[in-house]
Design goal:
Largest sheet: 3 strands, antiparallel
Distance between the termini: 28 Å
Helix content: 40-55%
Radius of gyration: 20 Å
Number of helices: 9
Structural class: alpha+beta
Number of strands: 9
């Protein structure tokens, strides 16, 4: 079975997944024995030097967004590199240049182009999130970036535009209370398209979670069918990237076809769908 991998965070996916759900970058095909990947830029070269001539930077405490920003800076500097999980690997010949870039990104934080964030200006609002886990803050960062909202982190304090208060609080609630379905922000009611999309997303996750363990699970099959009845690839849940949502709905349709045909790859397709949905629910 073919395998694909994210060149930023090292997460591996089944062959039909196209983008990393953590970092948003395109996945690359990797052979079964591969240890290191290629640069994130399309056409990037593969690091191929003996272990004795490699320098490894352990960046497990960095977020996926930070590693993506670092990868882009290394690529712009022409430094060939690879990722072994969350560890950055470069040639010893490039150590000095890599040291400078790693230090700059670590001190200066993630540049706007790395996080796809907008410029933060005007009247601002701060949220103290020191009680949140690093994983929750990272998930919130991804959701804010996907929604196109301007933001900055000052330690564990999130700073946003006051004019974006309602949209930000919806995302805060979605991360902090993932089991609660918010009302559609456009309609102000529980009957809008946004709420339906969140219910669809929750139903798909439940179905994928069950079917990855048992491809004939009746509750999983029922949940999948019910979710797909209300699924619209053109109407993503609030804060979810439209392209990512279209991929999710497409994969769910393929999973339903596999279930109907009693195909051998139901478990694998369910696992892949769950991986796509996991950061969003």
């Amino acid at each position: 079975m073919s395998t694909r991998a994210c060149t930023v965070c090292g997460e591996q996916y089944l062959g039909w997944v196209t983008r990393c759900t953590n970092c948003g970058v395109a996945l690359v095909d990797v052979p079964d024995a591969a240890v290191a990947g290629a640069d994130p830029a399309e056409g990037g070269t593969v690091l191929d030097v003996p272990e004795a001539d490699q320098v490894v930077y352990e960046l497990f405490e960095w977020t996926g967004v930070q590693r993506l920003a670092l990868a882009r800076e290394l690529d712009a500097a022409g430094i060939v590199h690879a990722w072994d999980g969350s560890d950055l690997v470069v040639s010893v010949a490039d150590e000095a240049g890599a040291d400078e870039i790693v230090e700059r990104v670590e001190i200066d934080g993630v540049p706007d182009e790395g996080a796809d964030a907008q410029v933060l200006d005007g009247d601002q609002l701060a949220y103290e999130l020191d009680e949140w886990s690093p994983e929750e803050r990272e998930q919130l960062t991804a959701r804010l970036a996907a929604a196109g909202l301007a933001f900055e982190w000052e330690g564990s304090t999130l700073v946003v535009r006051r004019s974006d208060e309602q949209a930000v609080e919806d995302l805060l609630d979605a991360v902090e209370f993932p089991d609660e379905l918010p009302a559609d922000p456009e309609s102000g009611s529980d009957d809008g398209d946004g709420d339906v999309a969140f219910q669809v997303m929750s139903g798909l996750f439940l179905a994928a979670d069950r079917l990855q363990h048992d491809p004939r699970d009746p509750d999983g099959i029922s949940s999948l069918a019910g979710a797909l009845d209300g699924a619209d690839a053109a109407t993503p849940p609030y804060g979810v990237d439209p392209r990512q949502w279209a991929t999710i709905v497409g994969d769910a349709d393929l999973l339903a076809d596999a279930v109907a045909d009693e195909a051998d790859d139901v478990t694998d397709r369910a696992e892949s769908l769950r991986v796509l949905l996991r950061p969003l629910v």
